[in-house]
Structures are given as C-alpha cells and as structure tokens.
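Margin note from the TA: students keep mixing up input and output lines. Inputs are the sequences; the output is the structure of the whole complex. Example:
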Amino acid sequence: MGVDERRQQLIGVALELFSRRSPDEVSIDEIASAAGISRPLVYHYFPGKLSLYEAALKRASEDLAGRFEEPQEGPLGSRLLRVMRRFFDFVDDHGPGFSALMRGGPAVGSTATNALIDSVRQAAYVQILSHLRVTDPPARLELVVRSWISLAESTALIWLDGRRIPRAELEVQLVHDFAALAAVSAAQDAEMGALLREMLKDEPADGPFNDLVVRLISLAS
Amino acid sequence: MGVDERRQQLIGVALELFSRRSPDEVSIDEIASAAGISRPLVYHYFPGKLSLYEAALKRASEDLAGRFEEPQEGPLGSRLLRVMRRFFDFVDDHGPGFSALMRGGPAVGSTATNALIDSVRQAAYVQILSHLRVTDPPARLELVVRSWISLAESTALIWLDGRRIPRAELEVQLVHDFAALAAVSAAQDAEMGALLREMLKDEPADGPFNDLVVRLISLAS
C-alpha cells in the first residue's frame, strides 16, 4: 500500500474502534492488530493515539456534516425528517464514540476536537437556513435553528443511554420540535411569525407539521 | 485570617475573575493581586490554578443548582419562570466563564469539571421532576425534562454571544418551550398526554402557558 492509502485504511480501522467503545478504552495495540500491522508501523503514520483520534474524528465530522445536505425539493417537514433519519443512522453507527465525544473529558476534549464539533454544527446551521431560503437570519431565527441543532444532539445522547424510546419516534419528534420552537418564537415576534408562515405554506395535509397540529388539537379536546 | 477563611476568600476572588474572562486568560499573579496576597501564598492554599479553578467552579455549581429550588406553591408556569429568571441572573453574572466552561476545551474540560456540570444538570432534573410530582418518570418524560435543561443551556450560550435578544423574552420563551416540548411528546404518547393534562390543570388564564396558547391561536388565524 502507498503512504496515503495506508493512512486512510488506518483511519477507517481506528474510526470503527473509536465508534464502538469510549476512545480512552481503545489502545494503539488494538488498532495495529485490527489493521493487521505492527505497533511501530502505526507510529510511522501517526505520531500518537491523539493524532489518529483527531484524523478519525475529522472523517466522521465530514460524514455527519454531509448528512445534513438535502435537495431543495418538496415540503420542509419531509426534508427535515430525511435529515433526522440520516442523523440517527450516524448516531446509531457511532454510539459509544459519539457519547464520549459529546460528553467531553480529557481523552476527547481538545481544542481540535471542539473545533470539529463546531464545524459540524455550523454546517448543519447553514444547511437548515438554506432550506428556509433565508440568507440574513434575524437573531431570533438564528436562536431557533442553533438551539434546535443542540436539541437534536441532546435527544440523541439521551436516546443512546439505554435506547428506551424507538428512534423512529424521536426522528419525527425532532421535526415536530423544530416547528414547536419556531412557533413559540413566532408567538412573541411578528417577524418570526411571517417567517413561520412562509416555512409552512407548502406543507401537505399528511406531512409531519400538519400531523403535529392534528395531534395537538386532539390532545386539547 | 484562618486557613479555611483564607481559602474561602481566595475562591471568591478567583470565581469573580474566572467569571469575567475566559479562565485560561486569568493568571495566578492576577488572583494573588486581587486577593491582596503574594503569589507563593496562593500556592500555599492551592497547589495550582486548576485546583483553584475547580474549587471556584464547585462554589458556582452549588450556587446554580440552588437556583433551581423553588417552593412547591402556585402554578407550574410561574414557578418555571422564576427559576428561569434566577438561571439568567447567574448566566448574566458569570457570562464569559460560563461560555468557556460549557464550550469545553483544555483549560476547562477536565473530568472533575464535567462531573460538576453533570451534578448541576442532575440537580435541575430532580427539582423539575419534584414540581411535576413524578417520582418514577417514564422514559419520554425524562427525555423532555433533560432535553429542556440542555435547551436552556444552549439558549443562554447563544444569548451571551452578542446579547441580541432581551433576556426577559428568553426567560418566558424557555417556559413556553417546556410546554411545547411536552406537548410534542404528548401528541405521540397517551401516557405523556395524561401527564401534560395534570401539569397544566392549575394554570391560570394569565399564566405563561395560557399566554402561549392565546398567542398561537392568534398566530394561526
């Protein structure tokens, strides 16, 4: 194998191991053994476990950021639901590593790892704004979108801790939560009200947003 | 001053400095100078900046956890609103230190600091459950309460970044968000529906929960 090919293979093997268990439990020996090479050869490509962890995290970050990309077609609720399904696919595949990373701590909380987490959040934020067709968001819309992204993270982390709620229910719930957070903000602010009406005007009768309204009306009665 | 008195004074001085600027910008020299003692004397009481930071953070954590305590009297919406006011008072007083801590990183992201953050989240969770009069919460209620606490954190962090929205609006918004997240969950699950009806049955016509419903009806029309 060439140098770059070997590096890419090692990153893939490491990402697999760092995803399945907390990264501080994964040793270089284990990575070497899983890659079928010697420990000194691992160090030939990466100076230490941290640099290999950061490379694996960079690949995972690019993967996750890509899952927020969605064609600008069809109603907003269905687009968000497809994004949430891909987000939970990622969380499902990388559970223990995702939990360890998001909970921080010495093994995973470096400046470089925090910058990668922020880059994924920013990519998700830019994607959601593009679907809302807003280029210069008012402060309240920025708050709704960014705090919803953080809600998706915390919902996923709580789900991973025991998986006591079916993930498909939480994917729909997060789409509903987006509409609910936007509606709460719109209830206080006319500009957000106008944005919300624009967002929801193409929603079909059987889409997730109308589904929420129907369920809430039935709950209230 | 006695040993304990001097330690407590140093913790107070350090907390003040760690709150006003990012903790990695605060030096032991500065803490010594603000406390009116010599640098070696600071080291006599605390082996290094990290141990002083952790002691200051412990005091701040106990303070913050205490702000979630609220008498079990009156409607739920008003209780939550008083808690949110005290939460934003805390965030306002400790802005830069709170941001640096919650964003993690090498200066603040140790195992001990993460354990303190978790202890505050747990205290807030237990307090909210006690107001809901639930001792054995179903998984969906746990998710709503814990994810709402995380939403309060992210809302405060976004607010601190420029303070572009009046904090009083966000205090009310977070109370509304609680009702909205509970309603979204209740729309999918009968047990949550029963819990939500019980939560809201004593809400007065001019309380924050009914205020939200009135505003949403006006928005929809």
